[in-house]
Fold this sequence. Notes:
Elements: E1 8-11, H1 28-33, E2 39-41, H2 50-68, E3 73-78, H3 81-91, E4 98-104, H4 112-117, H5 122-139, H6 146-151, H7 155-164, E5 172-178, H8 190-200, H9 209-212, E6 216-221, H10 254-266
Parallel strand pairs: 1-2, 1-3, 3-4, 4-5, 5-6
Helix pairs in contact: 2-3
Amino acid sequence: MTMLKYPILLVHGxxxxxxxxxxxxGRIPKxxxxxxxxxxxxxxxxxxxxxxxxxxxxxxxxxLIRETxxxxxNVIAHSKGGMDMRYAICQxxxxxxxxxxxxxxxxxxxxxxxxxxxxxxxxxxRFAGGCSDLWLRLQGDKNPNAYxxxxxFSTEYAKKFNEENPDFPDIYYQSYACxxxxxxxxxxxxxxxxxxxxxxxxNDGLLTPEAVKHGDFxxxxxxxxxxxxxHCDEVDMRRRRFTKRxxxxxxxxxxxxxxxxxxxKEKNL
Length: 269
């Protein structure tokens, strides 16, 4: 049994919401609860800015501390959720409640490909973001702002963000990267993977390993299947293992989360 000292808070990325019917995290929460761990969800907006989502996470964390009686939480965040959480820690005083922050393909260092996308005409980017905001407002987002979120993925923004939001020495930070094997690995991520691959090299359909390195970087997690691991696969959106084959790499994304659990256990978190 791998039971942690503190409860787990799962913080989702952009474009999706925590939902009791269709869980963003697939089978992942069950491997935590099966070992006796309490699991909770961030519940922040899908397309909210880092600042707005951090405020939501602040309220959520304070509520969970009261509810559970625990002094701290172990936070596991995917994609932009890691940026939301870092802002909450540094700017909103949540460092006192966080024992660890594990990030999975979070754009800590920004995306060179997004830098190029942001060179497109602003009205075009605003229109695309507005369509997304409209849909997610119907899904429950209180203040979506995809255009501003897109800007927060740039390398210029990341540099400034990292200077203003340094790591706290009492918090354990670890990060993971994943990559697809080719653009046909995931039809959902096919086009963005091809674009990022042309500009920057191997990626998970959105981000390269260099873009997501932070804290104790655990390296690139690869699948032993023919398709690799996409940005969607990282949170088990397909609810199934990659392959039954054994060999180099993981055959199921749950293997990565079991490793995360074991690391936190070894650090008495």
